[in-house]
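protien #1 (seq + structre)
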Amino acid sequence: MNASKRRTQEVARWPEQVSVTLHWRTTLRSQKIWLVSQKGPSILVGHSYAGVVISGAANDAPNVQALVYIAAFGLDEGESIDALSKQGAAPAGAAAVLPPDEHGFLSIDRDGFPKAFAADVDAVEARVMAAVQKPLRINSFTAKSGPPAWKHLASWYMVRPKTR
């Protein structure tokens, strides 16, 4: 059985949403704890909102040598993902994001996920990707970023026009 089919069968047995991402700052704290345990030089790579996480986590982490942003938010101090997102056209995935629930969590519509986030991915793999997405607190988009590590570390940013 191929890996994609096996993952699809495993996901089919999972409850709707088994875990959530509370806030990028929660992820950032976890990342900083993990970085302390790393021996030797490290390079942090982030995609989407994880760009905010890697930039904050790399501060005060002497083993981090570089940052790589893959279609990620590279915020400056005091900026928010929400404010930056409003400076241009709506991101491709915005249409697939459902309104916040009664607890302030955003989710991605599973049926809209493939078109918005995985247009060039195998249909089975896209369904797996949609099923494992975690809800995210709306304040993850409105919170202001702290000092960015990209100001003092080697950093690369990959952008692809028409990326979905």
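ok now protien #2
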Amino acid sequence: MTSTTGPMTDRSLAARPHPSRKPCLTAVLRMAGLRPTRQRVALAELLFGGPHRHVSAEQLHGEAATASVNVSLATIYNTLHQFHEAGLLREVAIDASRSYFDTDTSDHHHFYVEDEQRMIDIPADAVEFKTLPKAPAGMEVAHVDVVIRVRKAPV
């Protein structure tokens, strides 16, 4: 289930059950330059089988266990990073020890709800920059990620 509140979208809830998309996902993995192993296809089904969402490696590991996909946490991390490198996922680093992987690779930003450890999308055009600093010599700005940390307001 996905809840929508205005232009911001909370996709932290688990995806709905879905029919197998193995043939399609196998082709997507091949086109991304990845060999469609049994584990990659199974994890791709969990990740891409429903609406866009944000997932941590630990969350995906739990979902895999529930779906009887026998895979180690190390394999989950490796696969998420391979999917990211292939352009299938976007990695959003919250701090040095926590990253979420977003199935929506389009340009957008995020709220991070600290007390719930979940992310909510912010459309790219909802954040404006007056100026950006010049990139260091020989470099260019590849992407700007904005993560706005929020928490429940006291009552």
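The radius of gyration is 17 Å.
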